[in-house]
Amino acid sequence: MRTPHLLRRLPFRRLAAALAAAVVVGLGLSGCERPTPLVTMESGGHFVRTNAAQYERDGTVIQKSVSPPHITVRPGSAINIDVPTSVADRGYFLVLGRERVTDKISETHYRYVPAKNTPALLVVFALPEAGSSSDQASGSWPFLVTFKP
Hints:
- It comes from Frankia casuarinae (strain DSM 45818 / CECT 9043 / HFP020203 / CcI3).
- This is Lipoprotein.
- The protein has helices spanning 5-30, 85-90; strands spanning 39-43, 46-50, 54-57, 60-63, 70-73, 79-82, 92-96, 99-100, 109-112, 120-126, 139-147.
- The protein is of the alpha+beta class.
- The chain folds into 2 domains: 1-32; 39-147, Immunoglobulin-like (Sandwich), CATH 2.60.40.
- The strands form 2 sheets. Strands 3, 4, 5, 7, 8, 10 and 11 form a 7-stranded mixed beta sheet that branches. It has a 4-stranded antiparallel beta sheet with strand order 2-1-6-9, with no helix packed on it.
- The model is unreliable at 22-31 (pLDDT under 50).
């Protein structure tokens, strides 16, 4: 009994399809840019995280449209902030509303207890890279903080 022509070619077609898919995936991955570092906030067991709205990498500023994630905090409760080592090594500070509320922070984890209980934008700003002549922040991660008893 002879094998039909179509069945003899089926393994080749599968192999060709698999190779084509691998090439497409490879090309797609090589075109992706590295993501910006994520910053995470936690309060009362609720976690939110975001990519940077702006981030300087290798002298190039990357800007993205980011909707600030919302976190609800009980008055007097702490907000735990986690940043990657690359941000902690540069140093960072917090701004609540329009007021800088911390000095330079160099740890990957920081515990912040807001003094005011008014809703505000809490932004994590990364300091410029070492050796940079700029005095502008090298990254920013916005979070919307509201308070609820």
